[in-house]
Specification:
350 residues, alpha/beta, Nucleotidyltransferase, domain 5, 5-stranded mixed beta sheet, globular, binds adenosine-5'-diphosphate, binds magnesium ion
């Protein structure tokens, strides 16, 4: 079975990252922890017409875009194909058809150019984005993972060892944003649209209490989501007006304040000096500000990836690829795509 493992592992390899797990086709090139290029093509505009991601449309859009996006990333990095030291690709979790486009492309590319292939877990990519933001970042630290599929506080022991301090018992925070957005009549993608609307509203609509101290580091978002849905439906049934911006603002605070509180609490308990964050919800301005303020107050250093490296992108895949390269974890041509990878597997083996 073809598997190319480099004889000499470079200190700062040039890694091509490829991402196609959902509706963004991404390709990026990094050299060590330096970002050389970052390309993305999105089918979000088409998906918005259907109110969410239609898997078949996403797969077709990836097929159309991938070669162009990869080519552009290599050109903009100012390198040639021969300069690439490894190809890192998202193998899961995500939409199977969409993932297969990236995985098949990466396998063919690596095979044709005689380059090593690295299979990257998408969520590990979200966690690794922080290392590119701050090149001096070193574990141990506490990490807030807030995405469309996961919500967790992790103790990052090393670049590949994590301890789950707590996670969501039901919905993920991003999922709650997407569902509430739909109730408020906002277009896909829900998170950024709620944030925009929330900026014009006030935190005046009562929201249920989130799991505080005795909930440990666990979260529950299904009650919050249901409360918002009930509030809107009851108002509509009574023919009463309600201010959608106020609902968005109140929901946003309730959903995000608890993340900040528990991330800081985790850092204090684990006696670390640094907090990092990753995942699409970390692109939220309110969350970023609240985390910044809370960490400053607690004397903690905060490493927040830039907004574009919080939502799906190939740069974070290259970043995790770099960690795997240094560990010598290379994939072979049997590498398949995986639609679902539980968080326990993600933090255990990646
Ligand atoms: N500005 C924002 N505010 C709140 N949520 C956001 C924002 N931007 C993106 N999101 C949410 O992030 C989620 C996607 O994040 P992502 O990390 O890619 O999820 P996953 O990788 O688990 O599928 C979506 O639920 C989206 O609504
Ligand atoms: Mg993602």
């Amino acid at each position: 079975m073809y598997q190319f493992t480099p004889n000499i592992q470079k200190e700062n390899p040039i890694i091509l990252g490829i991402e196609s797990s959902c509706d963004e086709t991404g390709a990026s090139v990094i050299c060590g922890k330096k970002i050389l290029s970052d390309e993305i093509a999105s089918s979000a505009d088409i998906q918005a017409l259907y109110g969410g991601v239609v898997p078949e449309i996403a797969s077709r859009a990836h097929t159309d875009a991938i070669a162009k996006v990869v080519d552009k990333a290599i050109k903009n990095a100012g390198i040639s194909y021969a300069d690439i030291d490894a190809v890192a690709v998202t193998y899961g979790a995500g939409l199977l058809g969409a993932l297969l486009v990236g995985v098949s492309f990466a396998k063919a590319f690596a095979y044709a150019l005689n380059k090593p292939l690295i299979a990257v877990n998408h969520i590990r990519g979200h966690l690794a984005a922080a290392y590119l933001q701050d090149e001096s970042l070193k574990p141990p630290f506490v990490t807030l993972l807030a995405s469309g599929g996961h919500t967790a506080i992790l103790y990052t022991k090393s670049e590949s060892e994590f301890e789950l301090l707590g996670g969501t018992l039901d919905d993920a925070v991003g999922e709650a944003f997407d569902k509430v957005a739909r109730v408020l009549g906002l277009q896909y993608p829900g998170g950024p649209n709620i944030e925009r609307l929330a900026n014009t509203g006030k935190n005046v609509v009562p929201m249920p209490k989130m799991l505080k101290g005795n909930g440990g580091y666990n979260f529950s978002y299904s009650g919050l989501k249901t409360a918002v849905i009930n509030y809107c439906h009851t108002k509509s049934q009574k023919g009463e007006e309600y201010n959608k911006a106020d609902v968005a603002c109140s929901f946003q605070s309730a959903a995000l304040d608890i993340l900040v509180e528990k991330a800081v609490q985790g850092a204090k308990e684990k006696n670390v000096t640094t907090v990092t964050a990753g995942g699409g919800v970390v692109a939220n301005g309110y969350l970023r500000e609240a985390l910044t303020t809370a960490c400053q107050k607690a004397g903690l250093k905060l490493v927040l990836p830039e907004k574009r490296y919080c939502t799906d992108n190939a740069t974070m895949i290259a970043a995790e690829g770099l960690l795997q390269y240094r560990l010598g974890n290379f994939a072979d041509m049997r590498q398949n795509a995986k639609a679902s990878i539980p968080l326990s597997v993600t933090i255990d083996k990646g």
